[in-house]
Amino acid sequence: MTTRTQLAATRPRSSLSRLAVWCALWCVSSTIARAEEIQQDFRTFKSFVQSAPDRVLAYARVKPLDRSEELDRQALEAVEKINRYTHLTEMPPPIHWADGLGSCAHPEAGLLIDRQQLVQLRDAIPAEPFPVLLMFVIAHETSHMRQYKECGRGVLFDVNRTRELELQADILGAAVVMTVGLREGWESHQRGVTIPAERISGTTNFLPTLGRLIGHPAWEDRTAHPRWDQRMIGSIVGYMGAMQKIVGENFIGLTKDGKTEQAEAVLREFTDYDRRNPFMPRLDRESLAMERGFDWSARVARVMVQDGFFYAEEVRKHRARNSVPEP
Ligand SMILES: [Zn+2]
Protein backbone atom coordinates (compact mmCIF):
# COMPACT_ATOMS: atom_id res chain seq x y z
CA MET A 1 0.00 0.00 0.00
CA THR A 2 1.39 3.35 -0.99
CA THR A 3 1.52 5.86 1.80
CA ARG A 4 2.56 9.46 1.97
CA THR A 5 5.68 8.37 3.82
CA GLN A 6 6.62 6.01 1.04
CA LEU A 7 5.95 8.67 -1.53
CA ALA A 8 8.15 11.02 0.47
CA ALA A 9 10.95 8.47 0.49
CA THR A 10 10.92 8.34 -3.29
CA ARG A 11 10.59 12.02 -3.92
CA PRO A 12 13.07 13.50 -6.35
CA ARG A 13 15.43 16.29 -5.49
CA SER A 14 14.21 19.35 -7.34
CA SER A 15 11.55 21.49 -5.75
CA LEU A 16 9.40 21.33 -8.86
CA SER A 17 9.54 17.57 -8.79
CA ARG A 18 8.80 17.45 -5.09
CA LEU A 19 5.82 19.68 -5.61
CA ALA A 20 4.59 17.43 -8.37
CA VAL A 21 4.97 14.26 -6.32
CA TRP A 22 3.17 15.73 -3.37
CA CYS A 23 0.52 17.62 -5.15
CA ALA A 24 -0.13 16.25 -8.55
CA LEU A 25 -2.19 13.17 -8.47
CA TRP A 26 -4.31 14.37 -11.31
CA CYS A 27 -3.13 17.81 -11.78
CA VAL A 28 -1.89 19.95 -14.56
CA SER A 29 1.27 20.87 -12.76
CA SER A 30 2.34 17.25 -12.77
CA THR A 31 3.51 17.95 -16.28
CA ILE A 32 6.48 19.70 -14.75
CA ALA A 33 7.41 16.58 -12.79
CA ARG A 34 10.90 15.16 -13.09
CA ALA A 35 12.28 18.45 -14.32
CA GLU A 36 15.74 17.01 -14.83
CA GLU A 37 14.38 14.71 -17.52
CA ILE A 38 12.21 17.24 -19.23
CA GLN A 39 13.29 18.87 -22.44
CA GLN A 40 13.58 22.62 -22.51
CA ASP A 41 10.28 22.86 -24.38
CA PHE A 42 8.34 21.36 -21.50
CA ARG A 43 10.09 22.99 -18.60
CA THR A 44 6.97 24.90 -17.58
CA PHE A 45 3.29 24.21 -17.72
CA LYS A 46 2.93 27.20 -20.01
CA SER A 47 5.33 25.77 -22.57
CA PHE A 48 3.59 22.39 -22.31
CA VAL A 49 0.19 23.87 -23.05
CA GLN A 50 1.53 26.05 -25.86
CA SER A 51 3.30 23.19 -27.59
CA ALA A 52 1.86 21.52 -30.66
CA PRO A 53 -0.06 18.34 -29.81
CA ASP A 54 2.22 16.07 -31.86
CA ARG A 55 5.25 17.33 -29.95
CA VAL A 56 3.47 16.74 -26.64
CA LEU A 57 2.44 13.23 -27.59
CA ALA A 58 5.93 12.38 -28.83
CA TYR A 59 7.49 13.74 -25.66
CA ALA A 60 5.09 11.89 -23.41
CA ARG A 61 5.75 8.64 -25.27
CA VAL A 62 2.05 7.99 -25.16
CA LYS A 63 0.42 4.67 -25.85
CA PRO A 64 -2.95 4.37 -27.56
CA LEU A 65 -5.72 2.57 -25.74
CA ASP A 66 -6.70 -0.91 -26.79
CA ARG A 67 -10.33 -1.82 -26.19
CA SER A 68 -9.47 -5.51 -25.81
CA GLU A 69 -7.57 -4.67 -22.60
CA GLU A 70 -9.72 -4.41 -19.47
CA LEU A 71 -8.27 -1.17 -18.08
CA ASP A 72 -8.32 0.46 -21.50
CA ARG A 73 -11.93 -0.55 -22.02
CA GLN A 74 -12.89 0.91 -18.62
CA ALA A 75 -11.11 4.18 -19.40
CA LEU A 76 -12.71 4.51 -22.83
CA GLU A 77 -16.09 3.73 -21.32
CA ALA A 78 -15.55 6.43 -18.70
CA VAL A 79 -14.69 9.02 -21.36
CA GLU A 80 -17.80 8.09 -23.35
CA LYS A 81 -20.15 8.12 -20.36
CA ILE A 82 -18.83 11.48 -19.18
CA ASN A 83 -19.56 12.89 -22.62
CA ARG A 84 -22.98 11.25 -22.84
CA TYR A 85 -24.30 12.37 -19.47
CA THR A 86 -22.52 15.62 -18.71
CA HIS A 87 -21.33 17.13 -22.02
CA LEU A 88 -18.24 18.62 -20.38
CA THR A 89 -16.76 18.60 -23.87
CA GLU A 90 -18.50 18.66 -27.23
CA MET A 91 -16.93 15.37 -28.28
CA PRO A 92 -15.21 12.78 -26.08
CA PRO A 93 -11.63 14.06 -25.77
CA PRO A 94 -8.75 11.93 -27.08
CA ILE A 95 -7.21 9.83 -24.31
CA HIS A 96 -3.72 8.34 -24.13
CA TRP A 97 -1.65 6.47 -21.57
CA ALA A 98 1.30 8.61 -20.54
CA ASP A 99 2.95 6.53 -17.84
CA GLY A 100 5.24 8.29 -15.41
CA LEU A 101 4.36 11.76 -16.68
CA GLY A 102 1.57 12.53 -14.23
CA SER A 103 -2.00 12.74 -15.46
CA CYS A 104 -2.75 15.98 -17.23
CA ALA A 105 -4.71 17.56 -20.06
CA HIS A 106 -3.50 19.35 -23.17
CA PRO A 107 -5.98 21.54 -25.08
CA GLU A 108 -5.51 19.65 -28.37
CA ALA A 109 -3.68 16.45 -27.48
CA GLY A 110 -6.41 15.59 -24.95
CA LEU A 111 -6.14 13.53 -21.79
CA LEU A 112 -2.79 12.05 -20.81
CA ILE A 113 -3.43 9.55 -18.04
CA ASP A 114 -0.64 8.04 -15.96
CA ARG A 115 -1.27 4.37 -15.17
CA GLN A 116 1.43 4.39 -12.48
CA GLN A 117 -0.56 7.05 -10.62
CA LEU A 118 -3.74 5.04 -11.06
CA VAL A 119 -2.06 1.98 -9.54
CA GLN A 120 -0.76 4.06 -6.61
CA LEU A 121 -4.24 5.38 -5.97
CA ARG A 122 -5.90 2.01 -6.35
CA ASP A 123 -3.45 0.42 -3.91
CA ALA A 124 -3.88 3.25 -1.42
CA ILE A 125 -7.66 3.10 -1.49
CA PRO A 126 -8.42 -0.60 -1.88
CA ALA A 127 -12.02 -0.36 -0.72
CA GLU A 128 -12.96 1.97 -3.54
CA PRO A 129 -14.50 0.41 -6.65
CA PHE A 130 -11.77 1.05 -9.20
CA PRO A 131 -14.05 2.17 -12.08
CA VAL A 132 -15.34 4.99 -9.85
CA LEU A 133 -11.82 6.12 -9.02
CA LEU A 134 -10.86 5.93 -12.69
CA MET A 135 -13.89 7.94 -13.69
CA PHE A 136 -13.04 10.60 -11.10
CA VAL A 137 -9.49 10.98 -12.43
CA ILE A 138 -10.68 11.14 -16.05
CA ALA A 139 -13.50 13.55 -15.16
CA HIS A 140 -11.03 15.83 -13.36
CA GLU A 141 -8.81 15.99 -16.44
CA THR A 142 -11.81 16.39 -18.76
CA SER A 143 -12.81 19.38 -16.63
CA HIS A 144 -9.48 20.97 -17.53
CA MET A 145 -10.37 20.48 -21.21
CA ARG A 146 -13.57 22.43 -20.55
CA GLN A 147 -11.63 25.14 -18.73
CA TYR A 148 -9.39 25.57 -21.80
CA LYS A 149 -12.50 26.01 -23.93
CA GLU A 150 -14.40 28.34 -21.58
CA CYS A 151 -11.50 30.46 -20.35
CA GLY A 152 -8.81 30.06 -23.00
CA ARG A 153 -5.57 28.22 -22.36
CA GLY A 154 -4.01 31.38 -20.98
CA VAL A 155 -6.09 31.23 -17.83
CA LEU A 156 -4.09 28.28 -16.59
CA PHE A 157 -0.90 30.33 -16.72
CA ASP A 158 -2.26 32.62 -14.04
CA VAL A 159 -0.65 31.10 -10.97
CA ASN A 160 -3.02 33.03 -8.73
CA ARG A 161 -5.89 30.99 -10.13
CA THR A 162 -4.27 27.54 -10.02
CA ARG A 163 -5.94 26.47 -6.80
CA GLU A 164 -9.33 27.74 -7.91
CA LEU A 165 -9.17 25.91 -11.24
CA GLU A 166 -7.95 22.71 -9.63
CA LEU A 167 -10.71 22.87 -7.05
CA GLN A 168 -13.26 23.44 -9.79
CA ALA A 169 -11.93 20.32 -11.54
CA ASP A 170 -12.40 18.36 -8.28
CA ILE A 171 -15.95 19.67 -7.85
CA LEU A 172 -16.83 18.84 -11.45
CA GLY A 173 -15.03 15.48 -11.21
CA ALA A 174 -17.14 14.43 -8.25
CA ALA A 175 -20.29 15.84 -9.84
CA VAL A 176 -19.62 13.76 -12.94
CA VAL A 177 -19.17 10.58 -10.90
CA MET A 178 -22.49 11.22 -9.19
CA THR A 179 -24.30 12.25 -12.38
CA VAL A 180 -23.18 9.18 -14.32
CA GLY A 181 -24.10 6.97 -11.37
CA LEU A 182 -27.55 8.50 -11.07
CA ARG A 183 -28.21 8.49 -14.81
CA GLU A 184 -27.21 4.86 -14.98
CA GLY A 185 -29.75 3.92 -12.39
CA TRP A 186 -28.49 4.69 -8.90
CA GLU A 187 -31.11 6.45 -6.93
CA SER A 188 -30.98 8.50 -3.79
CA HIS A 189 -33.10 7.48 -0.85
CA GLN A 190 -33.07 11.09 0.30
CA ARG A 191 -34.11 12.59 -2.97
CA GLY A 192 -37.13 10.43 -3.65
CA VAL A 193 -35.26 7.43 -5.04
CA THR A 194 -32.93 4.74 -3.67
CA ILE A 195 -29.18 4.27 -4.17
CA PRO A 196 -27.83 0.84 -3.21
CA ALA A 197 -25.98 1.38 0.06
CA GLU A 198 -22.79 -0.31 -1.07
CA ARG A 199 -22.47 2.03 -4.04
CA ILE A 200 -22.89 5.10 -1.86
CA SER A 201 -20.48 4.02 0.85
CA GLY A 202 -18.04 2.91 -1.82
CA THR A 203 -18.07 6.26 -3.52
CA THR A 204 -18.39 8.63 -0.61
CA ASN A 205 -15.86 7.03 1.72
CA PHE A 206 -13.01 7.42 -0.67
CA LEU A 207 -13.08 11.21 -0.80
CA PRO A 208 -11.77 11.75 2.75
CA THR A 209 -9.20 9.00 2.22
CA LEU A 210 -8.11 10.53 -1.02
CA GLY A 211 -7.92 13.95 0.60
CA ARG A 212 -5.65 12.70 3.36
CA LEU A 213 -3.49 10.80 0.90
CA ILE A 214 -2.77 13.77 -1.30
CA GLY A 215 -2.82 16.47 1.35
CA HIS A 216 0.35 18.29 2.28
CA PRO A 217 1.10 21.69 3.83
CA ALA A 218 3.12 22.60 0.72
CA TRP A 219 -0.24 23.20 -0.87
CA GLU A 220 -0.54 26.33 1.20
CA ASP A 221 1.65 27.81 -1.51
CA ARG A 222 -0.85 29.90 -3.41
CA THR A 223 0.50 28.70 -6.73
CA ALA A 224 -0.07 25.04 -5.94
CA HIS A 225 -3.17 23.01 -5.34
CA PRO A 226 -5.92 23.51 -2.79
CA ARG A 227 -5.45 22.10 0.67
CA TRP A 228 -6.68 18.56 1.15
CA ASP A 229 -9.64 19.70 3.23
CA GLN A 230 -10.68 22.09 0.45
CA ARG A 231 -10.42 19.32 -2.15
CA MET A 232 -12.38 16.95 0.06
CA ILE A 233 -15.18 19.44 0.77
CA GLY A 234 -15.17 20.50 -2.86
CA SER A 235 -15.66 16.91 -3.97
CA ILE A 236 -18.46 16.33 -1.49
CA VAL A 237 -20.21 19.53 -2.58
CA GLY A 238 -19.75 18.25 -6.14
CA TYR A 239 -21.66 15.10 -5.24
CA MET A 240 -24.41 17.05 -3.51
CA GLY A 241 -24.73 19.61 -6.29
CA ALA A 242 -25.00 16.94 -8.99
CA MET A 243 -27.83 15.30 -7.09
CA GLN A 244 -29.55 18.64 -6.59
CA LYS A 245 -29.23 19.46 -10.29
CA ILE A 246 -30.96 16.23 -11.22
CA VAL A 247 -33.79 16.98 -8.79
CA GLY A 248 -34.12 20.45 -10.34
CA GLU A 249 -34.20 18.92 -13.81
CA ASN A 250 -36.94 16.57 -12.64
CA PHE A 251 -38.96 19.59 -11.58
CA ILE A 252 -38.41 21.24 -14.97
CA GLY A 253 -39.42 18.07 -16.82
CA LEU A 254 -42.57 17.56 -14.74
CA THR A 255 -43.55 21.22 -15.16
CA LYS A 256 -43.13 21.06 -18.91
CA ASP A 257 -45.22 17.88 -18.96
CA GLY A 258 -47.98 19.70 -17.07
CA LYS A 259 -47.70 17.40 -14.03
CA THR A 260 -48.18 20.31 -11.67
CA GLU A 261 -48.78 18.43 -8.45
CA GLN A 262 -45.75 16.17 -8.82
CA ALA A 263 -43.66 19.15 -9.91
CA GLU A 264 -44.64 21.09 -6.78
CA ALA A 265 -43.63 18.16 -4.56
CA VAL A 266 -40.24 17.92 -6.25
CA LEU A 267 -39.80 21.69 -5.98
CA ARG A 268 -40.45 21.54 -2.23
CA GLU A 269 -37.77 18.88 -1.98
CA PHE A 270 -35.37 21.00 -4.05
CA THR A 271 -36.04 24.15 -2.04
CA ASP A 272 -35.70 22.42 1.30
CA TYR A 273 -32.31 20.98 0.32
CA ASP A 274 -31.20 24.36 -1.00
CA ARG A 275 -32.16 26.10 2.23
CA ARG A 276 -30.12 23.67 4.27
CA ASN A 277 -27.03 23.39 2.08
CA PRO A 278 -24.93 26.26 0.72
CA PHE A 279 -23.28 26.15 -2.71
CA MET A 280 -26.03 24.30 -4.53
CA PRO A 281 -26.72 24.96 -8.25
CA ARG A 282 -29.49 27.50 -8.88
CA LEU A 283 -32.85 26.90 -10.46
CA ASP A 284 -34.44 29.67 -12.52
CA ARG A 285 -38.15 29.02 -12.20
CA GLU A 286 -39.06 31.70 -14.74
CA SER A 287 -37.07 30.29 -17.64
CA LEU A 288 -37.19 26.73 -16.30
CA ALA A 289 -33.42 26.30 -16.46
CA MET A 290 -30.75 25.01 -14.11
CA GLU A 291 -27.48 26.87 -13.65
CA ARG A 292 -24.80 25.38 -15.91
CA GLY A 293 -22.52 22.95 -14.09
CA PHE A 294 -19.44 24.85 -15.22
CA ASP A 295 -20.75 28.19 -13.91
CA TRP A 296 -21.89 26.65 -10.64
CA SER A 297 -18.57 24.88 -9.96
CA ALA A 298 -16.61 28.04 -10.86
CA ARG A 299 -18.73 30.10 -8.49
CA VAL A 300 -18.27 27.60 -5.65
CA ALA A 301 -14.53 27.09 -6.19
CA ARG A 302 -13.95 30.86 -6.14
CA VAL A 303 -15.42 31.08 -2.64
CA MET A 304 -13.81 27.94 -1.29
CA VAL A 305 -10.22 28.90 -2.05
CA GLN A 306 -10.49 32.17 -0.15
CA ASP A 307 -8.29 32.50 2.91
CA GLY A 308 -10.16 31.56 6.05
CA PHE A 309 -12.86 29.58 4.26
CA PHE A 310 -14.54 27.27 6.74
CA TYR A 311 -17.29 25.04 5.38
CA ALA A 312 -19.07 24.33 8.66
CA GLU A 313 -19.33 28.07 9.29
CA GLU A 314 -20.76 28.61 5.80
CA VAL A 315 -23.39 25.96 6.51
CA ARG A 316 -24.25 27.60 9.82
CA LYS A 317 -24.61 31.08 8.28
CA HIS A 318 -26.59 29.72 5.33
CA ARG A 319 -29.06 27.95 7.62
CA ALA A 320 -29.35 30.98 9.88
CA ARG A 321 -30.16 33.17 6.85
CA ASN A 322 -32.86 30.68 5.84
CA SER A 323 -34.20 30.27 9.38
CA VAL A 324 -33.37 26.57 9.29
CA PRO A 325 -32.69 25.24 12.79
CA GLU A 326 -29.51 23.24 13.32
CA PRO A 327 -30.27 19.58 13.99
ZN1 LIG B 1 -5.90 19.09 -12.24
Give a verbal description of the structure.
- The chain is mainly alpha-helical and 327 residues long.
- The protein has one domain.
- The chain is 57% helix and 4% strand.
- The strands form 2 sheets. Strands 1-3-2 form a 3-stranded mixed β-sheet, with helices on both faces. Strands 4-5 form a two-stranded antiparallel ribbon.
- Strand 4 and strand 5 form a beta hairpin.
- Helix 5 (70-86) packs across helix 7, helix 5 packs across helix 8 and helix 7 (130-151) packs across helix 8 (162-183).
- The longest helix is centred in the C-terminal third of the chain and has 29 residues, at 228-256.
- Bound molecules: zinc ion (ZN).
- The site of zinc ion (ZN) has 7 residues, from helix 7 and helix 8.
- Residues 26-28, 140, 144, 166, 169 line the site of zinc ion.
Find the count of extended strands (DSSP E, 2+ residues).
Answer: 5
Per the principal axes of the C-alpha atoms, what is the gross shape? globular
Order of helices and strands: HHHHHEEEHHHHHHHEEHH
- Give the strand line-up of the largest sheet: 1-3-2
Tally the helices: 14
Radius of gyration: 20 Å
β-sheet strand percentage: under 5%
How many distinct folded domains?
1
Ends: how far apart?
A: 39 Å
Bound molecules: zinc ion
Give the helix level as a range of percent: 55-70%
Q: What value does the average pLDDT take?
A: 78
Major pleated sheet:
3 strands, mixed
Would you identify the regions where 5 or more consecutive residues have pLDDT less than 50?
1-39, 187-202
Structural category is: mainly alpha
